[in-house]
Design goal:
Elements: H1 8-36, H2 58-68, H3 70-73, H4 76-94, H5 99-112, H6 134-143, H7 147-158, H8 162-166, H9 171-177, H10 179-190, H11 195-202, H12 209-219, H13 236-248, H14 250-261, H15 264-267, H16 279-296, H17 301-316, H18 320-344, H19 348-351, H20 354-382, H21 405-417, H22 424-449
Helix pairs in contact: 1-4, 1-20, 4-5, 5-13, 5-18, 6-18, 7-12, 7-17, 7-18, 9-20, 9-22, 10-11, 10-20, 11-12, 11-22, 12-13, 12-22, 13-20, 14-20, 14-21, 16-17, 17-18, 21-22
């Protein structure tokens, strides 16, 4: 932790802001001015078109080859996005920030921003937004919300709810952290986003990448119509990248907030060990949890249904092969696909926008609010608890559902205060309840805005 620099949290915001200010905004303003003046902009198109037989020979072949190279088609935005992709890979390898996510996403950004011939509307079936391309087919799982439920299936199959069952009051910390979602929703409305777009942006505060992708594929997909007849913006790429970026930066964002809001005495609080949980309790919990949560928010059925289904596979004891497949092969394959395609969706002409910068700013704010709410609510609960039952507020941050990274942050900060005080087993309760809470919040927003 000591070697990690706080500046990495601001790296993406700085790069995107500079890119927008220096390159994208002036070009958009120039094009707008020309349109208002009635002057048509003429694109310098390559002379080659499929089927063109007017020129022959070696020279025309070279000209055709040059027209299709990345060197000829490269734009400033492509280069900027490729540097961002390299930055992601650097963070994953150098600091081990969520490498299983940032390496595929960073590589996807590189792939998605390789310049290719697009003049004259020619479809070479290369880019992720070109119909018929391999990337376009793989991206279908993101656009239709197919991948997130499969991720939740794997999470359910690898999650042990014992700590949550043994100390259910800590679930309240997971609920408190979801304030970040609704605060971000309000902030997005204030910045001028339409309600469905703001709802999708708000889920970034839940620190749950699959949930963010799922709800943005429903609310901010560039297809749905608003009440005034306009189409919602396609914000899937920026929202997904922001969610996963800040998930990876949890070890950087959360500790300063936790230390600011707690004193030394609070950080030294020792919590009672959780009680032993019976096998019957482990089997009954996902069944009851599935029914109860989905009665509250039926719109969250694809996510919570798969989460609890995966946990039933794990705890039943008679479907070990299925549980093993869900938590290994399936989740690994889907993680590769979702990371690669989300990264590739950041094609410069789609991603480098003013909206993307605002989304990243809101994402950073939402993580801070969610962390603060979890910690402060733990302090609030302590006002009503006896001395031996008090909660160490350092586990409040784990309500941010970046599993298991936010729980690990609780452990690390607790060991800094007292090298013999292990908080991980306690922090896992708000951590897994945060996953459930963010999915319920997503269902509620879908119910209101979908």
């Amino acid at each position: 932790m000591k070697n990690r620099r706080p500046w990495v949290m601001l790296g993406l915001l700085v790069i995107l802001s500079l890119a927008w200010t220096a390159f994208v905004k002036p070009e958009k303003e120039r094009e707008k001015a020309l349109r208002e003046a009635g002057i048509e902009t003429v694109v310098d198109q390559a002379q080659y078109q499929p089927g063109d037989q007017e020129t022959e020979g070696f020279a025309s072949g070279l000209k055709q080859f040059w027209a299709f190279t990345g060197f000829r088609n490269a734009k400033t935005g492509n280069i900027i996005m490729m540097f961002i992709g390299l930055f992601f890979i650097f963070l994953a390898i150098k600091y081990e920030y969520e490498p299983l996510l940032l390496v595929p996403i960073g590589t996807g950004i590189l792939i998605g921003n390789i310049p290719f011939f697009q003049d004259g509307g020619v479809n070479l079936q290369i880019g992720i937004y070109q119909t018929g391309s391999v990337l376009n087919y793989l991206y279908f799982g993101v656009l239709k919300g197919i991948y997130p439920p499969l991720i939740f299936l794997g999470i359910g199959a690898m999650t042990d709810f014992s700590s949550l069952i043994s100390n259910p009051r800590l679930m309240l910390l997971g609920a408190a952290a979801q304030v970040g979602i609704f605060a971000t929703f309000i902030g997005a409305l204030f910045l001028g986003f339409a309600p469905p777009e703001a709802g999708a942006i708000g889920i970034i505060g839940g620190a749950d990448g699959p949930t963010a992708i799922f709800i943005s594929s429903r609310l901010a997909n560039g297809v749905n119509l608003l009440s005034d007849g306009t189409t919602v913006k396609n914000l899937i790429g920026p929202i997904a990248i922001a969610a996963y970026s800040y998930m990876a930066l949890v070890p950087v964002i959360q500790p300063p907030v936790m230390r600011l809001l707690t004193n030394k005495k609070e950080r030294l609080i020792r919590m009672k060990p959780p009680r032993a949980v019976t096998k019957t309790e482990k089997i009954v919990f996902p069944i009851v949890g599935l029914i109860l949560t989905l009665f509250i928010a039926p719109s969250a059925l694809p996510l919570l249904g798969m989460l609890f289904f995966g946990n039933i596979l794990k705890e039943s004891g008679v479907t070990k092969r299925l549980a093993e497949t869900a938590r290994t092969s399936i989740i690994d394959i889907v993680t590769i696909l979702i990371g690669l395609t989300v990264g590739a969706s950041t094609q410069a002409d789609v991603f480098l926008t003013k909206e993307s910068i605002m989304i990243f700013g809101l994402g950073a704010l939402s993580f801070i609010i969610a962390t603060a709410c979890g910690v402060l609510f733990a302090k609030f609960m302590n006002l009503f608890l006896s001395e031996g039952d008090k909660i160490n507020p350092l586990i409040g941050n784990a309500g941010v559902s970046a599993v298991p990274d936010s729980a690990r942050v609780s452990e690390v900060e607790g060991l800094k205060a007292d090298p013999t005080n292990h908080l991980l087993m306690h922090a896992m309760t708000p951590n897994v309840s945060g996953v459930i809470g963010s999915a319920i919040a997503a269902g509620i927003l879908l119910g209101f805005l979908g």
